[in-house]
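Structure (tokenized):
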């Protein structure tokens, strides 16, 4: 069901099932959706039959940007009337019985002057597809019949409904031609006057639209226009909730604050302004379903979460900004992108339908009719890059671009899951047995070796699902939420978004065991539902590790170092590598530091990160951070979750480590390591020549260590030799654990660990 909501899992399933169906003739596959591209799915399955099941929605009148600008231009006119609210639904589908009746009633009116059946049908269902209906053989419409018969009142009624005068019959004649042909002078004058008025109206609308688009960027959300439209709806109607679709949290928050300080909307006795977003507390989300008291208007500011997931039964008006936030993957820059984009026609139809779920309604699309016609039919998401081989991916409905597949293979090779000829290694088979990202699987195995499994399980589940914190609405509550996060951060030494989540889960579990779950969630702004989901995921992951022999029945011995921040940072580094960044000191005129990555990309710390304040610390330059992903937002790249780490975990886990002569002849006595400003690629990358032998000959000599050809540290030759030995021992221990999951690590290796 809901097959249009595609992701990599559903696409992989479809590819596998399509291959299996010829060998399983008894199996029947049914794909269902109210808005899917049925022809495309039918072709994918070899031209399989399509069954249309008619459903019922109430009629919804639709307006576009030029309509909105027009009636906002003349604020004194009421743009709503009973016909608008009860009819004019463009999406009502006529069934065979209705079309057969219309054909019969048109013939009766035209040939026998029996008008009552046709008038009764139109009056009972004044929707566009009925009053603009054309006979399939002759092309005759109700307006043409009434115009030719001189039925003045009936012609005026159809024009008030919105009947189109420009429609042509099969012989090319219009309603005006029918009136003039039958010498119906009064009807002719009415039609001419109506057409003249509409021509001027269209020209005026186009002029307003051109002026508006010349002064406003249509890619951005116009909060002024939305506020004016909300006022107009409230002035022209008595009741009915208003649902406003916006791209993301920033737009919701900005418009909400704008409305709350507006003298018109700030009166809580007249208006309730609510936000609907996946990250706000569930108690706040539930408020959108409650009907307000009589005389109070409910205004809901929502993301596309309200498109299909929920039904708010008192919504009569929908304002569609036409924009949505969509997360995708940019394979050419190896970053996730979270950008506002135009919705598809399917999204727009879903949004319209929110106004007609339980009663007739009205939808205002804040984009032009021209834009509406150019929208893509469906939103097609690029598959994630966590793929295996090209042959399989080419079978999917929308294969990833080759560059995305190439980068995925590089990642899997880097963590040791694939060989160079794209075969699974022993490690790859072990990683594939766990239902998480391969990098996270490797981190879990590393955590087992380090006796630090419990926090690693939490981090793995959060990485696969979401963090549990909610976004409070009031400014005072936001300050309390920030203080609560700071308190949790201190439990593991601070400077880590990931540690905050781990601390929150540990504290939540203890509170739940004492029956204090609700109090904890309220104080620390945590979602109880998300925590319980993470709790269930952890149990599933534990059982998978146990089933595959990675852990013993007694889990307590796997978490002896769970409270050690140093080991925990090493485990986290193992799970996020090679996502490492170096904080650069701010430039002369800049206020904030930036993070440089191995590809020399520059990113900022997101203001939601607990490490955001580090951005303003000028002495922080050179610090290392591990992050989960870089996201490109509106005009910038940022890191939302990160942890500050020291050099040791990176030196032990990095793919490549080389030694070069130090730039300094002496090393300061109080420094074992320091971050160098030197660029790694400007140095000699090997220690095998005579000069390398010379600098390594004395234990006290200062040398430079270059990690992955870009990060440079200073150390003594003795330190470097010990690190090399430890790296080899660590690799040997991990390989031993992979090959012999049930046997304990040998004593010598265990000592090194």
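Design, position by position:
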């Amino acid at each position: 069901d809901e097959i249009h909501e595609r992701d990599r899992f559903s696409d992989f399933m479809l590819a596998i099932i399509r291959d299996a169906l010829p060998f399983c003739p008894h199996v029947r596959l049914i794909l269902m959706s109210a808005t899917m591209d049925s022809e495309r799915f039918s072709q994918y399955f070899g031209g399989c039959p399509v069954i249309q099941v008619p459903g019922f929605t109430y009629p919804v009148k639709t307006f576009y940007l030029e309509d909105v600008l027009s009636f906002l231009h003349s604020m004194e006119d009421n743009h709503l009337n009973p016909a608008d609210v009860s009819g004019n639904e463009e999406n009502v589908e006529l069934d065979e019985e209705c079309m057969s009746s219309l054909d019969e009633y048109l013939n009766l009116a035209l040939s026998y002057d029996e008008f009552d059946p046709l008038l009764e049908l139109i009056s009972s269902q004044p929707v566009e597809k009925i009053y603009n209906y054309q006979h399939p053989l002759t092309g005759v419409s109700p307006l043409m019949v009434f115009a030719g018969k001189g039925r003045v009142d009936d012609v005026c009624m159809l024009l008030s409904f919105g009947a189109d005068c420009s429609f042509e019959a099969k012989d090319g004649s219009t309603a005006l031609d029918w009136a003039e042909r039958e010498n119906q002078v009064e009807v002719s004058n009415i039609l001419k006057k109506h057409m003249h008025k509409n021509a001027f109206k269209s020209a005026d609308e186009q002029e307003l639209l051109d002026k508006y688009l010349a002064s406003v960027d249509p890619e951005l959300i116009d909060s002024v226009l939305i506020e004016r439209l909300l006022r107009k709806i409230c002035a022209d109607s008595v009741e009915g909730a208003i649902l406003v679709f916006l791209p993301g949290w920033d737009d919701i928050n900005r418009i909400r604050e704008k409305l709350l300080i507006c003298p018109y909307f700030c009166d809580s006795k007249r208006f309730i302004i609510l936000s609907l977003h996946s990250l706000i507390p569930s108690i706040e989300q539930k408020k959108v379903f409650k009907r307000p008291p009589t005389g109070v208007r409910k205004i809901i500011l929502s993301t596309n979460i309200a498109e299909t997931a929920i039904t708010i039964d008192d919504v009569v008006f929908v304002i569609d900004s036409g924009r949505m936030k969509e997360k995708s993957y940019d394979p050419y820059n190896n970053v996730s992108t979270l950008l506002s984009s135009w919705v598809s026609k399917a999204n727009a139809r879903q949004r319209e339908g929110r106004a007609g779920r339980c009663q007739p309604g009205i939808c205002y699309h804040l984009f032009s009719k021209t834009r509406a016609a150019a929208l893509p039919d469906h939103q097609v998401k690029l598959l994630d890059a966590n793929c295996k081989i090209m042959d399989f991916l080419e079978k999917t409905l929308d294969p990833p671009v080759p560059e995305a597949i190439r980068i995925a293979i590089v990642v899997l090779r880097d963590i040791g899951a694939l060989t160079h000829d794209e075969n699974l290694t022993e490690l790859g088979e072990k990683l594939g047995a766990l239902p998480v990202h391969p990098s996270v699987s490797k981190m879990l195995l590393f955590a087992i070796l380090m006796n630090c499994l419990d926090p690693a399980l939490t981090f793995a589940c959060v990485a696969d699902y979401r963090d549990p914190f909610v976004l409070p609405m009031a400014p005072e509550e936001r300050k309390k939420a920030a203080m609560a996060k700071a308190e949790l951060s201190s439990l593991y030494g601070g400077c880590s978004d990931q540690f905050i989540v781990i601390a929150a889960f540990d504290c939540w579990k203890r509170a739940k065991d004492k029956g204090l779950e609700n109090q904890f969630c309220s104080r620390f702004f945590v979602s109880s539902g998300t925590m319980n989901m993470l709790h269930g995921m952890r149990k599933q992951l534990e059982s998978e590790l146990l089933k595959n022999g990675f852990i013993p029945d007694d889990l307590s011995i796997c978490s002896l170092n769970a409270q050690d921040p140093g080991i925990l940072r090493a485990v986290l580094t193992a799970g996020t590598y090679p996502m490492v960044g170096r904080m650069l000191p701010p430039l002369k005129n800049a206020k904030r530091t930036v993070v440089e990555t191995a590809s020399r990309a520059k990113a900022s710390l997101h203001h939601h990160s607990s490490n955001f304040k580090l951005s303003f610390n000028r002495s922080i330059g050179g610090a290392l951070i591990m992050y989960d992903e870089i996201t490109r937002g509106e005009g910038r790249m940022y890191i939302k979750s990160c942890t500050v780490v020291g050099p040791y975990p990176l030196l032990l886990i990095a793919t490549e480590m080389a030694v070069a002569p130090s730039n300094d002849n002496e090393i300061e006595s109080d420094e074992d390591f320091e971050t160098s400003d030197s660029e790694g690629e400007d140095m000699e990358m090997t220690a095998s020549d005579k000069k390398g032998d010379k600098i390594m000959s004395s234990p006290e000599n200062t040398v430079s260590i270059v990690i992955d050809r870009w990060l440079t540290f200073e150390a003594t030759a003795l330190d470097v030799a010990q690190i090399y030995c430890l790296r080899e021992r660590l690799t040997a221990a991990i390989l031993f654990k992979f090959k012999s999951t049930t046997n304990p690590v040998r004593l010598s290796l265990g000592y090194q660990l």
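Reviewer-requested clarification: DSSP finds 31 helices and 18 strands in the chain. The radius of gyration is 33 Å.
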